[in-house]
Amino acid sequence: MEAKLDRIRKQSSSKLANQKLYGQTLIAIEEMTTLQSSQGTADLVGAILYLLDEVFPFLPHSILRSKFTDILTIIENIFEEHKEEQPIVRSIIGCLQELLAAQDGPHWSMPVTKKAYQQILILSANASAKARKRAQDAVRNILSRPPAPLIVHPASEMTAEFVLRVLHEASKTDQHAAQQMLALLQSIVPFWPMTKFVALCQVLLQMPKFNNIFLTKAAFDVFQVLFDSENISMDEEKFIGLLGAICELKPAAVDERLLPTWLLIVGKAFPAFAKMNPAQCAKDIAAVFSLIFNDLQQDSRCYRQIANCLCTLIDYCITDDMIMEASSGETNGINEIIALLENGLGVHYQAAWIHVMTIQQAMFNKLNHYAAPLMNGCLTLLGELRLSSSEAYKEQLDKTLGAAISTMGPEFFLKVLPLNLESSSASQVGRAFLLPLLKIYTSNTTLGYFVNALIPLGDRLAQKGEAAAGRDLQMQAKVYETLVNQIWSLAPGFCDLPVDLRRAFNEHVAERFSALLYSKPDLRPTIAQALQFLVEKNQALAKSSADDHHLMMAYGLTKQDANLNLQFLSKFAVNYLAVFFNVFSQIPSMSRAFMSDVIKAYLTITSPEDINATFKKVLDMLSQALASKEPAVSANDTSLPPPMSHTMLDLSVIMIPFLDSESCELLFSGTIQSLLHKETEPVLQKKGYKILKHLLSIPNGRQIITNHINEFQEQLLNGTATCSASAKKDRIKTLLDTIPLLPSEDLHFIPAILSEVVLASKESNEKTRNFAFDLLVSMGNRMKQGGVIKNSHLEGFNPSAPDAQANISEYFTMVTAGLAGTTAHMIGATIGALSRIFFEFKDDIPVQLASELLQTINVLAASNNREIVKAAVGYVKVCIVVVDVGILQPQLGNIVQSLLKCSQQHRAHFKVKVRHMFERLIRRFGFDTVNALVPDEDKKLLANIQKRRLRAKKKKGANAAESEDEEEVSARATTKKGDFQDAYEEVLYGSESEIEDDGSEDETLKVAKAIGKATAQKSKKKQNAPNAFIREDGEDTPLDFLDRSALGRISSSKPMQRKMKTNQNDFTEDDSGRLVINEPKDNDDHSEGEAQEDYYMQHVTNPDGFVRDKRNRIKFKKGKDAKDDSMEIDDGESGKKVKKPVQRYERIGKEFRSKKAGGDVKRKGQMDPFTYVPLSKVVKKKGRHEQKVTYTGRVKK
Question: What is the pLDDT of residue 804?
Fold first, then answer.
């Protein structure tokens, strides 16, 4: 029997759930038996209870229910004996939690179950801190898991009665239990029974009467959670009474503890009341708003919380009906609130002006388009403040004015605050500062105001500017020019979903915009953006998922209005496209992006017939430009527009997504016949490949190319030899999109372009290399799908050559043929291509093929050519990482020998790579296996690698024991370091080494790298601080990079230049470096004697002189001071001061200072880190000069 039980015990760690269940059950039963027989041993009881606390959550509920009575009896006895042992109490609470949560509905009607739950409730109020917290968590956990099929837990009523009874029993002298119940309430309010909400609110309202700030705040916190709860059940009358009582409990404005919590309650309660009765809430909101708003007059630190609460009330409690009534002239709560906001800009509220403006912004946004007549008073006051605004609130003031612009609209806004740009009277103040605000905040307004008011204003200012320029008033003319440009910069805002588009945008306005595109190059981006907004904003509104009612309330337009606007704009599309094309041809290539965007926008609303007709005109102009052979523009001059042929090709690329099949076929035929073979004009060739790439990205283009696939393949193959370097990337992208279109019955195109793609993977351009690798993978996937390769169609093959079946093995065979290349470049490119496709298709190729490839590349890894070795090492590295051990094991010896030979032949270039690869081999096969394959003369290298690995692991383990913050920082750094574009690059270029690189390179290489880094940093701009410097010692000899001590000259901080002492008696040197010795002259002493007397120095050095103190009072030198002052200046050193000794201090408590942070730490075996003043150093005998202690924490040495 014991053997069988032992076997069941072992199944407790089984992976199978059914076996694990029986094992855990047996262990639990045995533990309970042990628990019954271990009376009085607290340590053993605590350990077993802790284990049960951990095991119970994983036991089936059926077992917990069947053993409930037995377990509960044992736990009760233990609790009576060890109720003072807090760890045991916490474990008992955890066990009771799982036991009670497992009980079904009928069990909760049993007295024993209620008694156990009652014990947890008692502990949640009176236990010690940790046990009380555990009991409160247990109550919340139990209530959140009601037994099926019940929705409300049976214990919720019992819990509510207990909590209410404890709160009722609170008195002025005993409030501890009430505070704990309030803490419990915050977590169980979502499970509170609906019938007890009124009783709970009544009890909570009694808490502030005890004048206990902590009890009051806890009650407010419960109210906040209560109003957050969605299942609150209370009739309207009682809810109104509750809100009134809460308002009566309002703390003072200076109460920084209670006021923020009370404001949060109000911010949650009134929105809940607004859902219950919006009309009644709207009537009461003005009184509450006034009650809170008046606190902004007081000196308080809660201005931000007050503003947030009032903004919440405005957002949720003001109804649309109130806004409509107020806008129609009726008086309601909104008028009272607006009056308060106007008073808020008075002197009494000056300290809170920023927050008053925040509330005004919320009011502007709530009123939206109805803010125009209602908020005019506030806007007038804001305008006066803006004329004399302080920097303290200027930013907030501009935001408030911006909110007024976006809601009222520029027309009503400028009626209240006119610009007055033409006024010359002193009473009318100019407000040009509003133009930048209008540019930022104008949208969804009336375009007619811009057309009828602002454009004529701009024209009048332009005329004044021309008149000023005619009178040589350049400054005045510049001011007018700036104002005109600022007015026209408002056009995009007025064109952003205007509500009167069909009325305001007429032929005259369209012609004016076209004329500006031609005549004002600096305004072209602005006008183009405005015309683009007219189309795109209406398209976005037409596609909106919102209903028309909400769209009308938000924008004043419906989806039908947006569609009508688009139909209206389509009438101007053809003429505008002609204008856009002409302007496009006049702009340099680097500045055409904005014109491309507006052309695409208007092509979306142009009919297909007009698009095709326009495109044919573009093709005609392209043919004429190509036939005329216009001179090429200098590539260095980016200010000139490109040739017409380039412009027409760019326009063709823009129009491709909108062309029909006929136009696509015309463009396709012209491109492959006229552009692909222009070797002498690489720009045209590049644009030709771009056109093909865009044709392949649209359905019509793919259909046309599929119909002419044979001709297309032939032209692409013929263009291999004539492709320029600048067009290589676009050609590879075109080939990448062509592969999926190849017919399965003829895949000869893949082997035909394979060599070109392999060589492209070695291009200097990184994007070209990446596209080439993607193309290799794409061709592999196409070959993997199957098909026929007609070798007779390949160049150089016999027409009677047999066909080959397309598969992945055949693809590898074709790529491997490049290993027979005559140049190292071709062989290296082939190996790199093989490594990429092998990584992608390693699971699809036969094991024998993978083994043969590894054997072949392994031989090449021992080559003398560095380019071949680099590629071969990369392939071997990929194999070591991804290939199965069964394939690597037979060739492990050859791999080791090749790596050793590579390291010996190219020591300076591949040492680190070879070391990383050996480390990988050790990780996969073990040190002993790899070490057995290494010759004796190279075992030292492997031993060093293993030693460094173990040291790095040990260091890593030590670092893992540090704080979690440091682990997160290191994890983020590691993630950033290994951030590669795909998994292949991670394997090929990622550094998987566990060994630090310090000391792994020879001294010459390290010096060269450091010097190179210093040189690169030196060439950067001044804002990029250099990371490495060469320290000079003032010697004339150059720095020897081969010297081992040269590394010490490299510094990460900028070295300070030493100030060399100059000796007046030094000999001078001539141009050739020879010393020049001047003979002393007879009149030298005489000339020195005749030098003018320095009365100031005599005054300073005179022992009988005087000095002035800080208050400019005269103080005569006496005794020691006179002697010291007279000795400060020596004859040999004119004006040199004697350095005073620097006072050095030693900080008290430095032994407690943390090495990794700014605070103190507790150290084992030492005292706690408090301030200990050494009395032995303070209380000293008179006359002794010992270390001076300062109470700032320093000891003078």
Answer: 87
**Contact between residue 116 and residue 96 where contact means Cβ atoms under 8 Å apart:** yes
Do 887 and 850 touch, CB atoms closer than 8 A? yes
Cα 1 from Cα 752, distance rounded (Å): 77
Distance separating alpha carbons of residues 67 and 75, to the nearest angstrom: 12
pLDDT for position 60: 86
Provide the total of helices (H) and of strands (E) in the chain, helices listed first. 59, 11
Both structure tokens of 372: 């125009």
Do 816 and 853 contact (CB within 8 A), yes or no?
yes
Distance in Å from the first CA to the final CA of the chain? 79
Per-residue CA distances from 1169 to 1147, 1172, 1195, 1196 (Å):
13, 8, 17, 21
The token pair that represents 1007 in the structure block: 């010096």
β-bridge partners, 1106: 1116
| Nearest alpha-carbon partner for 215 in 171, 160, 255 | 171
* Placement of tokens 């005794």 in the chain: 1119
Cα distance between residue 47 and residue 814, in whole Å: 69
What pLDDT is stored for residue 1008 in this prediction?
A: 44
- CB-based contact 673:640 (threshold 8 Å): no
Give the pLDDT score at 1098. Answer: 60
Six-digit token string for 146: 């009601």
What is the per-residue pLDDT for 966? Answer: 44
Nearest to 225 by CA among 183, 195, 278, 176: 183
Record the tokens describing residue 192, joined without a space. 């509170």
What was the pLDDT predicted at 609?
Answer: 93
Residues constituting the chain: 1197
Task: Report CA-CA distances (Å) from 1156 to 544, 739, 971, 1107, 1161.
Answer: 55, 58, 18, 50, 10
Do 458 and 484 meet the contact criterion of CB atoms below 8 Å apart? yes
Q: Which long-range contacts (CB under 8 A, 24 or more apart) does 639-646 make?
A: 639/588, 640/588, 641/585, 641/586, 641/587, 641/588, 641/589, 642/588, 642/589, 644/585, 645/684, 646/589, 646/683, 646/684, 646/687
Q: Which two tokens stand for residue 126?
A: 């009176």
List, for residues 84-103, the tens digit of each pLDDT value: 888 888 898 899 988 888 88
* Ranges of the chain with pLDDT below 70: 1-41, 171-173, 229-233, 389, 424, 426, 630-637, 905-909, 958-1107, 1110-1150, 1155-1158, 1165, 1170-1197
Per-position DSSP letters for 609-640, written without gaps between them = HHHHHHHHHHHHHHHHHHHHTPPPPPTT-TTS
**CA dihedral for 7, 9, 15, 21, sign (positive or negative):** positive
Q: Which of 350, 547, 554 is nearest to 444 (CA)?
A: 554
Cβ neighbors of 267 (< 8 A, separation 6 or more) are 308, 309, 312, 313
Confidence at residue 462, expressed as pLDDT on a 0 to 100 scale: 93
Closest CA to 691 of 749, 651, 742: 651
Instruction: Report residue 406: phi and psi, to 5°.
Output: -70, -25
Cα torsion angle, 927, 933, 936, 940, sign = negative
Cβ proximity of 141 and 101 under 8 Å: yes
The answer to whether the beta carbons of residues 175 and 196 sit under 8 Å apart is: no
- DSSP per residue, 217-251: HHHHHHHHHHHH-TT----HHHHHHHHHHHHHTPP
| CA 625 to chain centroid | 48
C-beta neighbour count of 304 within 10 angstroms: 13
Query: Cα–Cα distance between 289 and 313 in angstroms, integer?
Result: 8
What was the pLDDT predicted at 1046? 53
Query: Which residue in 707, 819, 806, 827 sits closest to 751, CA to CA?
Result: 806
The span from the CA of 521 to the CA of 515, in Å, is 11
CA distance 412 to 410: 6
- Write down the pLDDT at residue 802: 84
Q: How far is CA 91 from CA 1, 53, 85, 96, 697, in A?
A: 32, 6, 10, 9, 66
| Model pLDDT, residue 660 | 93
